[in-house]
User: Fold these one by one.
Assistant:
Number 1:
Amino acid sequence: VSTTTTREPLDAVFGALADPTRRDLLRAVITAGSLTTNELAEGRDMTRQAVVKHLGVLVDAGLLTSWRDGRETRYEATRRGLVPVNRWLSEADAAWERRLDRLRRQVDARRT
Amino acid sequence: MSAPETTDRIERSIELDADADEIWPLLIEPDGLADWLGDEVELDVRPGGSGHLIDDRGTRRDVLVTAVEPARRLAWHWWSEGDELSSVEITLVPTDAGTKVTVVELSATTAVLRAPRGLTGPTMSASAGRVLAGVVA
């Protein structure tokens, strides 16, 4: 079982998610819970090798974790790959309201 | 197969009664940033510069600056301890009254989950199990 606790450079995650194939692979894994390389390569318009390469990028970015499952490699989304949606939206929006309020007060304070 | 990346997007604007040149130092100087963006800021504000900040709720974020255009635009990626990675862009646009400050924050990881393929609706939760239940249902 590989570990996913290391904090990769932020750009690795953005880079990993910038590619539509990798987003699709991550979605497929999240939807299924876990999938093997063969299951992920099935029906795709690319070589198995290309799929493996994409999966490697997702693992390196800490979005997927993988382990040996018999003769196959199996993938599962990490917590990082399962960030809750609504909580993020509402909290981030409220946070910016507070921050911009503070910015306004600072600008006002510096002008007087 | 490509997914829209604008789903998990937050946008907020305010109009400030000051020129962009007056506001800019608050965006690039750690002491200035500590007055509004976070309570504790250690950040090297230049493209590729990094650091961290702790906000008013005690959340620590690692920050990577991606764009610095003096008095116009500042952008960074940041990542909280809760592993919530997002990208922020602040733009300053002169107006008759002063400057319009616009913030856009885009969540990288949630954009994936909210993409097409039937993954619609507010079904996600903090628990992976419930997330999967929502997706599969």
Number 2:
Amino acid sequence: MTDGNLSRGVGLAGMFGGILLSLLVGGGSGPALRAAQKDEAYPKPVFEDIRLIGASECKICHDESNPASREAYQNTQGFNFVRLKENQIWSLYDLHSLAFKNLTTSRTQEMTQGEVNKIAERMETNLRSLPSREKYTVAADQACLACHASTKRPLDVVPPSKWSSDSFVTRDGVGCEMCHGHGGGFREKHRQPVDVEGKVAAGQPIQVVPWRTWPPAVKKEWGLVNLRDPAVAATRCASCHVGNKEEGRFVTHEMFAAGHPPLPPLDLIAYTRELPRHWGLASEMPFLVNLAKTEPKKAFDLFHYRGDGDSLVVRRFAESTIGVLAASIALTHQLAEAAKKKDDGLDFAAFDCSSCHHDLKYPSDRQARGYDGPPGRPQFRLAPFALARLVVDHAAGMGMGDALKPLGGELDRIQKELATAFGNKTYGDPAAIVAAADGVKTWCDKAGAALQGVRYTEKDSLALLNKIVAAASREPLADPRSVPASQRSVADPELAQLYAWAAETLLLELAPKQSPPEPPAAIAQLRDNLKLDQKPTVVTRLRDEPFCCFEPKASPDESAPKLRSVDNRLHERMETFNSFNGEVFRNAFKKLPVRIGDLK
Amino acid sequence: VLFNDDSIRIAKLLGGGPAHENRLCLKCHAPAGVSDRDARADGVGCTACHGPSEKWIGEHYLPAWKAKSNRDKWNDGFIPMTNLVARISNCASCHVGSPDREVNHDLIAAGHPRLAFEYAAFHYQSDYRKHWEERTPQPAFEMRAWTVGQAASARAAVAVLQSRAATAQTNEAPWPEFAEYSCFACHQKIDERAPKAAKRLLGLPGWQAWYTATLNQAATGSHGMFATVDLPELKKLAELQAFMAQAHPKAKDTESKAAAALAELDAWLVQMQQAEDANPRSPTAKNDLDMLARALATGAPHQKEWDALAMHYLGSAAVYHAVGGAGSYPAWTDSLSAIRNELQFPRFPGRFNSPSRFDEAARNRVRGYFIHLQEAIFEGKNR
């Protein structure tokens, strides 16, 4: 098989995935199906082109301060489709651009041109102390580059097993294309205009770019990742931020022990809030708003956007929780499969960090919460389960949520099965984990599809916030064994983090927008209440800058706090992780106003 | 104890019925009560330590009994407590564990304290009222007690490992058992910034740091203290320890390696037992004491783990107390109490069972105090 055939194979597989989704959602005759039938109508990319082009290429167009005023964009009015100033924010603030430089140690400073990162330095020194690793170099380790640099070719073209030292480009760190897809294929096509036929009304574009309304599956064939779909976006982020062994990305426990900071639980919305977001939400882009009005079905199928009456942010939050759970369980599955083959156990990194890394203290939040099965058996990371369970539970109570009603109880059962599989053996029972993980995957597929049927109105979004607050405030039970894990009190810093972020997301969405933008008082209050002795007990910030509530300027803001060293920032974050306190956490949420009247 | 709040909570979390009726609990908390309900109220009764009394109860106050050898008494079920090897081995069967008695990680996670046995410290702990008088004078008694305690505890730990390895091959029991690893290897805060020990793989806990930390010092010490004891090499134990340091030690291989280590430890213990029987009250030479103290104080600064540092402290403290404490070795007092303060678990808020604030700075301070102690020992500033 030539490379060209391989590429088509992948593209078609993606397309069938699209059909399946559309069948589940739309009942069988959606545009995706019609698009597939008309497949021949879409041109095919040149396989060899699908490679990295680099941020410097993207910024030729995506670096405009005021694109609407530039003649070059008038014919197609591209600024109504995407912002075109993306790179200005990305290059100024986005930490992905520093991903490679952060691998700098005193031994590689010349190569990376970065400042020494004390964390990388510690890792390198610790790993060099091991036998036959005397020359170990973080910045040259493919296991590090997998997430700290860009790959020249997509992973389905050159998989990790074929990587060499020549497979990476380090200049942009984790550049545009690591999220959006390798640009070589669609570079030309995604901006190629055709003239609008017939007479054009005043103020309307005289040219259109057909690419814009191509189905996501076709765009994917050309290399573009449909990040407007929350499940796709969550999977993409999770590849590094959770891990994906098949994609060569997995922080082993040895790497953690050597000094790699823990990966915080993934929350798509909280993470992108603090990137900060460089893209326009569909609701901010006139082209998409208009499409949602004129062709709502098409707008949802292509851009996952419904317009008014279905909050884009809340939907994105809800669907991504399922995407994150699916990605987490996919990693667990990969690790268990590998362990099964070797008649071995799972790496400690497959387990929940705080299962082991906690003080041995009485009274104990963990004992008060209770356990699935015997205490003393480290478990998988519970946090994504709890959040997905809550989202599905909430949606089941909404109009059109009937398909979701049995899913809550179903997840409880599979979760218990997974807990037994993890607990039966010290390093997990690989065969049983594989079986349970299959169940979770099927569950995620069902839940993800069913969530698309509901509408996140303001009332429903508020109900979701209420549900999060209620779950976070839950007191320990006298007999925790009598209820499933999802109904117990919170004793896990990661889950606490996810609940706090989720509450912030909904508070931001529900609180009235102010000008100039101000963080809603409830968020400040929550963060304050989460402090003990003036110090936070739950991680709610990933960085110092106040990006959480409003977008930063596209020009450097001299008054903004300077980016502190990675080492300092992470040290603080880990201290916070270590200081979780169940009682403080519950009380902080109990004091939160959740009636909409209190927010306005 | 099986009726107090902790036991109720532990039993609830384990879900196996009340503690005072649970065999797992009774085996140590009321050994005679496992099969005899009426004996449960006695808790750990006389026979738990002195041995089942059927054969010797009518005889043991007669002159003929006293003339019997320890071996003969042993054959009657009596545990000759005057022989420290017999005594401490028996203590260890609960306080470390035995194939039939264990505190596993489930039990610890439910709230049972970890088992961290060191005979000399247990013997002298202030809330234990002894009903007997020790016949061996100090410093010999405590030095022997510490030394024999090291060997007997390690032996018990290996025997537990061997039995768990055997069970794990047929059962779904967790393997390896977390309770055998240093608690604080895992139960540490994330963001440990100190350079890692190159002794073992990164990110894996070490097996029985507690019972192996000062075993070499005890081995060397025993050779000096008991004239007839050969210097044990403990090679098999070192092999076992290295084997257990890997991520997924296979149960079958562990079982055979444990058997080899057990034979090695038994040979050592038998020699000490014979020496104890032959000459229970021989004095300990000052030179032997100094050697042991030096070995402990010079070994400690190389240690990274709380468990190992605590064991070095307990050994040093045993020497110090054996010779008469502050009255005899005043120059040691400050260093030892400073070390103890650093190693202590925080007391507030709540009850801690981990050295929550024991970070790299505290570790360095402890190392510093051990260096002070070394200086005091080397300069002979004992008195």
